[in-house]
Design a protein that fits this description.
The protein is of the alpha+beta class. Helices cover 20% and strands 35% of the residues. It is globular, with a radius of gyration of 17 Å.
């Protein structure tokens, strides 16, 4: 199996086992880290095992090859086609979007602002401890965090670029490309390859990723599911 196939499961069984919660043939990241969950065999998803990880009325997110089909005990909340892109030979943006831009390392003291920005822009599941998954960098304007990017899933030889987002009042200034380039540089320095996931209908983001050298590896879907009482 390629390291990027069934990538959530691979992350939770290799480089990020410290964040894993386990129930039978299902695993999930600790809920305050991220909502991502996975099955050992995605072709035969074990929803009974997943129910051992998610309380009633709580949600989890899965990556699947085909659109989600209804399963007893689960309510479909949201989902969309998803592209997985890999940067084998990337092109980095200039060191700064403009002469006034300063790239800052983000950490635990920035968590509340990171969560606020993620909730506003919705780049994907983001929790109070997501920053623990890897390096995060950002740009501030007037003291306020207005753009960020970081690392999420890690599997052998690959690290995911994630949480790429910019406040709507500060788009069009090149922040996303610059911050992604910094994260990609750090990944490359470790001898790893950057990859990412993006909604297939997010054409603006895909155009940025194309310019940075990312190419689509596969198309799949994501689904956010809520556990409900079975009839």
């Amino acid at each position: 199996m390629h390291p990027l196939d069934n990538v959530i499961w691979q992350a939770l069984t290799t480089r990020q086992t410290q964040f894993a919660e386990i129930s039978g043939a299902a695993r999930r990241f600790q809920p305050d880290v991220t909502a991502l969950c996975a099955f050992e065999n995605p072709e035969r998803p074990d929803f009974a095992s997943l129910a051992g990880l998610i309380d009633e009325h709580r949600t989890g997110a899965i990556f699947i090859d085909e659109p989600y089909e209804n399963h007893p005990g689960w309510e479909f909340v949201a989902g969309a086609p998803l592209g997985q892109m890999v940067c084998e030979n990337g092109r980095f943006a200039p060191a700064h979007a403009d002469s006034a831009t300063e790239i800052l390392d983000l950490g635990p003291t920035d968590s509340a602002e990171m969560l606020e920005l993620a909730e506003l822009t919705r780049p994907g599941p983001f929790g109070t401890r997501t920053h623990e998954l890897g390096a995060y960098v950002g740009v501030r304007s007037g003291g306020k965090l207005v753009s960020m990017a970081g690392e999420r899933m890690k599997v052998p030889g690959y690290t995911e670029v994630s949480a790429v987002c910019t406040h709507p009042d500060h788009t069009g200034r090149g922040y996303a490309a610059v911050l992604m380039s910094e994260i990609m540089r750090r990944i490359r320095e470790r001898g790893e390859t950057p990859f990412l996931h993006v909604r297939s209908d997010n054409t603006r983001a895909i155009a940025v990723y194309d310019r940075l050298g990312f190419r689509t590896r596969k198309q799949m879907h994501f689904a956010v599911l809520r556990r409900v009482r079975s009839e």
